[in-house]
Amino acid sequence: MAFLNRLWAILPSFGSPIQQDSLFLKQNQALGAAATTTVTLGSLAPAFSKGYVRVKIYGASVAAPTVTSVQVVLNDGTTLVLVGSFAPVTPTGLLSIIPGGTVIGSTDGHITSGAAILTAPSNPFTPAMVGLPISVSTAGTGATILYAYILSYQSAGQVTLDRNAGATATVGVMTLTGQYGNAGVLGTSVGGMDILFPFEVDIAATSCSVLTTLTGATAVAIEDVEVSTTS
User: Closest Cα to residue 97, out of 49, 61, 127?
Assistant: First the structure.
């Protein structure tokens, strides 16, 4: 679902916040099955020594994976510093991506990979939907579900989303849904994880890597990473 509330806007700190999304933000990164996936934000400039790293995991596959560890490592090109570690004794289970919410239109949502324009011949959109969360089946990275917000309304058959599709979908199921694909069922699993790691280190970091390990033979999920610092 990406980050609706950005760290640089909601967390106070000394100095002027740096907002360079091309460097300090990665969204819709695919996490693989039974493996450790590394998401790296590199060549960060200016270098930094304090701030926050936010990690969001959501959009779990129907196989309902568990998260066994999340590690956050900063690097200045020579020294590696571990600034965050989440490794519960009992792995955290995630709910599957069956989205709760209201399905709109027919199964005719069309969006092209790398684009944010969503169209539908069934004309299901209204101006009141601007700002609402929406999911589009098979339009996310690796043909998973794409989670986004409706950024603007053009017509009953076309809206613009707040993020680009990771895959082309021609018969997508469109659902006005929640942030984590949570069907609203409470239990031992959660809809998604949103973790904040504050840090202050004795290096001038220029790179941040997040190492995330999932378990589950066919499990997949989506991860967003944001670094917030000041100049």
Answer: 61
Among 231, 230, 225, which residue's Cα sits nearest to residue 24? 225
Condensed to tens digits (0 to 9), the pLDDT of residues 183-199 reads: 333 344 566 788 999 99
**Start-end of H helices in the chain:** 7-10, 21-24
Whether residue 106 sits in one domain with residue 158: yes
Residue 33 tokens, joined: 């099955």
Same structural domain for residues 31 and 91? yes
What's CA 112's distance to the chain center, in Å?
19
147, 137 Cβ separation under 8 angstroms: no
Round to whole Å and give the CA distance between 20 and 4: 16
Question: pTM higher than 0.85 for the full model?
Answer: no
Specify the residue for token string 């099955």.
Answer: 33
Alpha carbon distance 75, 77 (integer Å): 6
| Domain range for 220 | 24-96+185-228
